[in-house]
Amino acid sequence: MTEAWLEPAAWLIILPLAWASVAFLAGPGRGARLAILALVAQLGLALELAADLTQRGARMHAVGGWGAPLGIDLMADGLSAVMLLLTQAVALPIAVYAQAYFAETHHRHAATWFWPLAGFLLAAMNALFLSADLFNLYVTLELLGLAAVGLVAVGGGTAQITAALRYLLVSLLASGGYLLGVALLYGAYGTVSMTTLAPLAVGQTPLAVWIAAGLMLVGLLAKTALLPFHFWLPPAHGGAPAPVSALLSALVVKASFYLVLRLALGPFAMMTGTAAGLIGVLGASAILWGAWQALRAQRLKQLVAWSTVAQLGYLFLIFPLLAADGLALQAGALQVVAHGLAKAALFAAAGVLMRATGRDTVEGLAGVAGRVPLTLFAFGLAGVSIMGLPPSAGFLAKWLLIDAALKQGQWGWIVVIIVGSLLAAGYIFRVLRQAFLLAPEDSHFQPVPRRLEWVAFVLAAASVLLGLRGAELVALLGVGS
Amino acid sequence: MTVNEMLPLAVIASSLLPGMVIFALPEARVGLRSVLNLLGAMSKLVFVILLLEGVARGEVYGFRHTVLPGLDLVFKADALALLFVTLSTVLWLFTTIYAIGYLEGSPHRSRFFGFFSLCVTATVGLAMAGNLFTFFVFYELLTLSTFPLVVHRGTPQAMRGGTVYLAYTLAGGALLLTGIVWLHGLMGQVDFVHGGSVAALGPQATAQIKVVFLLLIAGVGVKAALVPLHGWLPQAMVAPAPVSALLHAVAVVKAGAFGIVRIVYEVYGVEYAQSLGLLKPLAIAAAVTIVWGSLRALTQDDLKKRLAYSTVSQVSYIALGVALFGPVGTIGGLAHLVHQGIMKITLFFAAGNYAETLGVHKVSELDGAGRRMPLTSAAFTIAAFGMIGVAPTAGYVSKWYLGEGALAAGMDWVVAVLWTSSLLNAAYFLPILYRLWFRPPPAAWPAEHIPARGWRETGWLLLAPPLITAAAVLVTGLFAEAGWSPLAWAKLIAAREYLQ
Amino acid sequence: MGETHRRTRIPAVTHASLIASLGWPLALMLALWPARTRRLAQGLAPLAPLPALWVAAVLSGDAVLELPSVLLGTRLGLDATGRLFLLFTALTWLAAGLYARAYLAHEARRSVFWAFSLATQAGNLGVCLAQDLASFYSFYALMTFAAYGLVVHTRSAEAWRAGRIYLVMAVLGELTLVAGLMMTAYAAGGTQVADIQVSTPSPLAVGLVTAGLGVKVGLPLLHLWLPLAHPVAPVPASAVLSGVMLKAGLLGWLRFLPLGYAAYPEIGATLLLLGLIAMFYGVAVGLAQSDLKVVLAYSSVSQMGFMTLGVGAGLNAPGLWPVLLPAVGLYALHHALAKSALFLGAGVALKVGGRAWVLAGLALPALALAGVPFTGGWLAKSALKAGLIALPAPWADLLGVALPLAALGTTLLMSRLLWLAHRLPAQEAAQALTPPWLAWTAAGSLLPWGFMPAWPWPMDWTGFTLAAGPVFLGLVLAFLAWRWPLAAPAIPPGDLVVPVERLLQALVRARLRLNRRAAQGR
């Protein structure tokens, strides 16, 4: 056991809080450099945590020393480590991106609160992944939600404020439902620790527990924007500035999914088992509906946002397929990571494309391939992962899903997965195709900082190349489960 | 990592790395880009020669990397892989030279050559794939890297062609994936091994195995342009000539045909496929494609479209050879993999020269082009005779072995198919030759343009590749029984395939 | 190939000669391309057959060149048949070449003619040397496709039409030949002539080979191209087309049919019947022609019928083949010499008109064709007859009647030729053309004597009567026809090709209409 003050898990929460506070104090639009430096450190911490977990091979990595005065118990296993890694790995490049993105004068006002909010967001998220009891989880979830709503609103436009308010409403209702469920559970069993709850909620369970599970799950599904609770997502993600959209789509929705997964693997195994078929059907509908909407979207960021709705659907296909062999769980984790990286890349690329064309429509992309080829290449690479083409991580996720479905003889999901991939190809290539068209006579392109392009490219390349290291990811995931 | 593991990777890297650098190069760095391209192509050639020499000696080259538990990327450079790798590598070199000349002064060349390199990377990766999964990885990579090339011109027709191309190939990829996953579910990882491994599943899985075969063949059949999955190929002819060469000769359709070879020989095993009765339908599908493609080619006035339909027809010779149970047919099919490549690339180079130098795109505008561009037209003529199967060209040799293989397999009707196909080939190629050589040239060409560094009839970068490949058409046919010929290599493969 | 390879010591000279005999014409052809060497190449082009002639006439016995890595295992060499064919092929090309030099003196597209002519020649000579089917087919294809350039050389409307029909039928023939050869090689287990001649391919294979080569030979119904293509070509080209290139098909039969080894009674009977039909059909249609060269072309159809009879008899009764083979060879030699002389003479006649010395020069080979005693034709016909009458009934009796009748027909056709030549108006004297022609006519009359088969045939009066009688009768009939002319029906050259062409054109038009309608519908 390392010394408490060297504990990486704790610093993963403290660091972002610290730089967020500094940025807040420093005033509007400042703090970018510090944030980037701190994020490098955070990434290192997450890597160290992961290496630590792999080495010790401990079933559970509980953190002591901070428990008593703060009332927070931190714990980490393979799944948390994967989520933490993903969070820092996406946040760092996006921060680099944001620094350049908000440097432009006409974005200054949008940048006013970006850095403090982003810091709080990351702190909340890291804390969420490291929390072991339901109440702490609620706190982090609420914090996360508020920070996210704030980020949606930083753009300051009417549409953005409206979207933010709608998001806020959903977020509050959902966390309210969750909190109610936690209270009911506490009433039934007298504990909110997941570890202690897990063996209790089996066999004959009181009705209150069922209600609690229902409330919590519905709340979390709404936060994850599973169909039919998806309505808030496209305007919120599609309307925010590009770095914000990237953070929201790549990371924030994954946090609530992570919670659902935790609950399904732990205390609510029985409840989710009962509702698994329904959740799967909802996921399948999300895949098809989201892709369909993306195919029809007029605006580029709307298209990407709808793609998020569809891709989140895949995450819920794992519930009917959860089995002892762990294939579905691995599929889910891989999909989270693949989508996280790819979607961040897509939004980053979309930001560049919008910057270059000065427009947000798919139509307006004609001829852009010749102007920002690197970005377009990044868009295509990220698209590879989204479409689930090899050798990307997205492919591995879908492969594992299909494999799991095949092993259990559930053929229907396979059809959905393949059709969903083809539809995804449809909307990705809709963009690429438009970009390859000859530029119309009257078009004029703005220059775009190279840094924005490279960030998009690095994220996209990571989402594809990760497919070659799937084995390591799966091994890390296996720690503690 | 041993040398035997490194070499296959070196072959892949020798086009991947230059490609990556080229993507990042500014448009104006023409010289550096050309040097990188050629350096990549040459170094790939050197690696391939090392591999060829080693494999002929009996060395085993391979590499395995675990992606997920139970899912490996496997590379193996066996004799069959090298047949395709060598073809792609050599033709890539010529196509690159040609493309440098062809695209001189046109925009977006960094992008073009970047994807160009990716495309050949995918092709050699696919050729050296050691299991179905790896094959699929590169099969899809090939789709993705060719799309930007097909739509390179950015015109609405190019977009239409590209969309059709994508729709077909991605759907084919989905079928292939379904088949692979299904097989994976039945028997775990499916490595390519001599004699196949599916037979081990036993008789109770026969029905499933047949369906999987259909899925796999349909999946690769899209790229191989088996009728009725061929619709994309004539549409994709809107691409610039070097890309057509790539699609028709170096990479795409070949990848499909090569997939058929691997699936029949090294997944199912030819004996087992025959015992399941799967080869006869394949032979019939190939025969239908051969005749149908030629029939459609007859009525095309657009030169490249005519050539495209001709490819539909000719590539199925390979599938036909595979479907003929027995070593002789195999030899014919495999040799045709190479022979068709060099013949078709010559034709497309020549077609590109007519378009680039004279602005001629249609057969009906070719009158007298032989007098204006005698060397290009001579190359075209040799390749056209090769397509018809006139001795002593390469096309004759592969047709001969296919015919002998059909007779040995007791499928005499295939000879009639070959007869019909040759007749139709003559019917759509000879009129072109007639126009080239015997009709008087027009007063003015549609859009004459003589490249700067010209060599009598056109730029020498455009002229040298078709001349070399046309010479190869003659030489590979004339010295078919020599030890270094594609035919000899095909015999080596057939011997290893049938004597496992 | 049961026997072990005979390791005869073959001097390098042999190999060099064999290669030179094919390489020299091709080298000359390539030398026509660069402007710098063009004049030289044109000057040397008539001498292109000399190395081949050297090989055929001088080179000793086992001249074999094995190139196992070329094509499907190439073997070039000479056997008795090949030597004979090579000899008359090379000689005829030499004569035609010398004639062409004069003929083309004022021709602008001289080098185009020479290029095609040299390529055709290389193919034609190679066919004679090929001892395996792949190289045979390669040379055969080279000859066929290059000859297209000769057929259309004048670029006239008739030439284009003739060229089109020639090409269509030639391609059909070659593809059929290849299909047949595939089957034959499969049955024989090898591609060497030596293997094939001792194999028993299926009747289908034999039929396909026969039909495929039959296009070149001009079997009835497969002859449609011949009366169109031979006359439109420049005269020296017509001479080799009709004189020696038809024989390449015949040589193919001799090489790739298991003659003398296996019996194919049905195919043999069919060939016999076709030969009979050809003999008379050629005469009948030829008599209705009014162009010298068309008459000669039809005469070729008729004459090839005689050789077809020999091959048909060989397939029918393998036992007779040892007798028939030399006879067919001799006939081929005789016809090659006589027909080329006639074509060259017709060229002279067309230039200078129907002068007496021209008519006399034409009459010599014409009489030989008719089989007048002591001509080459007489030798060939007698030899052939010796074999044919040994056929089983009813062929022996049938042929006993038909052969004299055919000789009568030939006489009539030749009379028609002379009469047409006689009517040509006198024009300027074409000195340059005359020497090669006359020299060739003289040589052609003498040469067959050197190839007399070494067995006795009936040298009695009956034989002379049977040979001379029909000719005499024919001359009488011709005289009567001259005095009291009959209105001959005008049959267009190519006879049956005309309705076939119309039918095809109608089909194409219908197809185009459909296309157009489909396009409009879209």
* Amino- and carboxy-terminal Cα gap of chain A: 20 Å
Enumerate the strands of the largest sheet of chain A in spatial order, edge to edge or round the barrel: 1-2
The main pleated sheet of chain C reads as:
2 strands, antiparallel
The chain-level structural class of chain A is mainly alpha
- Strand arrangement within the widest β-sheet of chain C reads 1-2
Main pleated-sheet profile of chain A: 2 strands, antiparallel
SS strand fraction of chain C: under 5%
Oligomer, anyone?
heterotrimer
- Rg over C-alpha atoms of chain A, rounded to the nearest angstrom: 21 Å
SS strand fraction of chain A: under 5%
The separation of the N and C termini of chain C measures: 62 Å
Label the overall shape of chain C. Answer: globular
Report the average pLDDT across residues of chain C.
Answer: 89
What share of the residues of chain C lie within helices? over 70%
Structural class based on helices, strands and sheet pairing of chain C: mainly alpha
Unreliable runs of chain A, pLDDT <50, ≥5 residues? Answer: none
What does this 3D model show about the protein?
- The complex is a heterotrimer of chains A (481), B (500) and C (522).
- Chain A is mainly α.
- Chain A has helices at 8-26, 32-56, 67-70, 78-101, 108-111, 114-130, 134-153, 158-189, 194-200, 207-223, 233-239, 242-265, 269-296, 300-317, 327-357, 373-387, 393-407, 411-436, 450-465, 470-478, and strands at 61-63, 74-76.
- Chain A is globular, with a radius of gyration of 21 Å.
- With 500 residues, chain B is mainly alpha-helical.
- Chain B has a domain at 278-500.
- Chain B has a two-stranded antiparallel sheet with strand order 1-2. Chain B has a two-stranded antiparallel sheet with strand order 3-4.
- Chain C folds into two domains: 12-491, no CATH class; 494-522.
- Chain C contains 20 helices and two strands.
- The longest helix of chain C has 32 residues, at 157-188.
- Chains in contact: A-B, B-C.
- The B-C interface holds B 299, 385, 388-392, 396-397, 399-400, 403-404, 407-408, 412, 415-416, 418-419, 422-423, 426, 430, 438, 477-483, 485 and C 68-73, 134-135, 137-138, 141, 145, 152, 155, 167, 171-172, 174-176, 178-179, 182-183, 185-186, 515.
